[in-house]
Amino acid sequence: MGKPTGPKPQFLLLVRSRSTYPCYKRRSDRYIMLNVLNKSIRWTMIIAVITFVLAAIFSVISTILLGGVGWALGMAIVFGIVFVGIVSDMLGVASTAATEAPMHAMAAEKVKGAKQAIQIVRNADRFSNFCNDVIGDIAGIISGTASAAVVLTISINVDASPPLQQAVNVIFASVVAAMTVGGKAIGKSFAIHYANHIILKVGEFFYLLEEKLKIKVFRDSKDRKRRAKQKAMKASGRFGSSKNRKP
Question: Pick from 62, 85, 100: which is nearest to 131 by CA?
């Protein structure tokens, strides 16, 4: 009689990926850290230049508008600058509170501005930095300078005494500060509860810029991923040179 037949032994070959070794983990973490640091430095330099240019432009415009106008029109200009800061702060908060899943559903239905809204949500850190820090801070600084100019105009027209001039300055500055803080509080509430709707409206505006003026605010995500993959392959040494490639 022969030996009883049974299930043959199965030999499994366990292959460990390169990412499980500590040396490759350290190399990957180092590359990710350097990549994030390079992007942060590049974005910081770009946003600093943009802030300088926008601050100069807004300062010149506000100086021209406030020059030779009455105190009533000057107050309207100051309140308009405060309103710009409130809206920009609301947009920045909405970009961080919005979710990407509803945007994909609207993009599948060919809703205008949905793809641009997805790009805003994916780049929420930069978009909120631009809206909250750049536009919001510039609006706050310029509104303070403009309010001082309006108070000076009121003092000249009324021929007020120094105590009265100081009282008008304090009252008007307090009103501007209260409007700024209160308006931003209301804007944040709207931004958190209606984030997707607000970002979709901004996406529609960006869609009009791309269609009418051919101005593309964000790069295509596929192109950005392809470039990032090529950089990662070059850094890991798996991206061979053109000399070693087979024709």
Answer: 85
User: Which among 202, 175, 207 is positioned nearest to 93, based on CA atoms?
Assistant: 202
Phi, psi of 99 (to 5 degrees): -110, 150
Amino acid identity of residue 143, one-letter, is S
The Cα–Cα gap between 178 and 176 comes to 6
Confidence of residue 194 (pLDDT cuts 50, 70, 90): very high
Backbone angles phi, psi at 144, to 5 degrees: -65, -45
Exposed, middle or buried by CB within 10 Å (0-12, 13-18, 19+), for 199?
Answer: buried
Q: Are 153 and 145 in contact (CB under 8 A)?
A: no
C-beta pairs of 99-106 under 8 Å, 24+ apart in sequence: 99/195, 99/196, 102/196, 103/196, 103/199, 103/200, 103/203, 106/200
To which residue do tokens 């209160």 refer?
Answer: 182
Domain spans of the chain, in order of start: 35-218
C-alpha pair distances (Å), 68 with each of 74, 148, 177: 9, 15, 25
CA Rg value for the chain: 28
* pLDDT band of 36, cuts 50, 70, 90: confident
DSSP structural state of residue 131 = I
pLDDT in tens, 57-76: 888 888 887 777 777 888 88
Count of Cβ atoms closer than 10 Å to residue 102 Cβ: 18
Query: Which residue has better confidence, 226 or 8?
Result: 226
The Cα 80–Cα 235 span in angstroms is 50
